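re: ur question from earlier - yeah i can do the single chain one, its not a big deal. heres the input i used so u can compare w yours
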Amino acid sequence: MELYPAVDILGGKAVRLTQGDFERKTEYAADPVDAAHRWVEAGARWLHVVDLDGARSGEPVNFGALARIAGLGARVQYGGGLRRLGDAERALDAGAARIVIGTAAFRDEQLLEDLLEAHGEQIAVGMDARAGRVAVHGWQERLELTPEEAIAALVRKGVGTIVYTKVDRDGTMEGADIGVARELIGAAGGSRVIYSGGIGSLDDLRALADLELEGVIVGKALYEGRFTIEEAQAAV
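and the output i got, formated as tokens:
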């Protein structure tokens, strides 16, 4: 299982939100590249970078930060506001090794199909869940789809990597939802699942590592010093 330290960008700064609430943010670095550099220096092989400005507005604005972060040497998984083909391809050109399509994957089937055909394994779908339903548009709108239903539909469309976030727990460090993670892996069949939401301890990471997950995204627990990159990688 791969570790993905998170770098969330809002207003040009590295922040973490609590439960996807833009009014409940904590700033960790005035420059997100500094946060990314910290994780790379500590040995991170991947970074999970989210353009929160783009997720909320529907149009990415942090390609410059993406290019600088990609230049640090770790592979970058990047998402947030990628709802047009040109923006998605611009993110890849800026250095993202993989891009995460969220809202557009559920609103624009043709875009998802075109991206999968053109870029294959470089495309992942972000599936955020709040109160048992899929959340889109920067977590501001819920669809009448359960995560299991959404994953089954994505697998049928040929999506190879699914990034799942349990928004209810995100940024709380209250613990990973192991039961949900196990159910999602079952629903995903052969598709890869990356889990995010609530991780607060090395025990959370060890429990997730016992499942057949592709990776785990960790944010606040790293920023708050609950454990180090080295300890987390040993756990996973």
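DSSP finds eleven helices and twelve strands in the chain. not sure if urs matches, ping me
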